[in-house]
Write a structure and sequence with these properties.
By secondary structure, the protein is α+β, with helices and mostly antiparallel strands. The chain has four helices and five strands. The model has no long low-confidence stretch (mean pLDDT 81).
């Protein structure tokens, strides 16, 4: 049984709200899941992210693979860093996080001042 840690949308139209769940890889986005380990609300200010660290680490240790978005959220919560300290050989698997962070920062920087005519 291949399990993934991913987001399950439960919000209404125009107001997304997600649960962070552990589900079989073959299950649909909002299909059956094994366990709910957290919530993510991208609309509230500041964005709300609550993940049960002990359960997330349990599933990571037992081979659950987070999706790219969920891996980013786990990294932001500090959970993925804890896991990678325990198992440094897995760092290569999550190398995309290093590439995503500078790109995200580049889009939020101010545009260079235009030259005066």
């Amino acid at each position: 049984m291949m399990v993934k840690i991913r987001l399950r949308r439960i919000g209404s139209k125009g107001r997304p709200f997600y649960r962070v769940v552990v589900a079989e890889a073959t299950a649909g986005r909002n299909g059956k899941f094994v366990e709910t380990i957290g919530i993510y609300d991208p609309v509230s200010q500041p964005k709300k992210l609550e993940i049960k660290e002990d359960r997330a680490l349990h599933w990571l240790r037992h081979g659950a693979e987070p999706t790219e978005t969920t891996a980013y959220l786990l990294n932001k919560a500090g959970i993925l860093g804890t896991f990678l300290e325990e198992r440094p050989t897995h760092k290569k698997k999550y190398s995309f996080l290093d590439k995503r962070t500078p790109a995200t920062a580049a889009t939020t920087t101010e545009a260079p001042a235009e030259a005066e005519a």
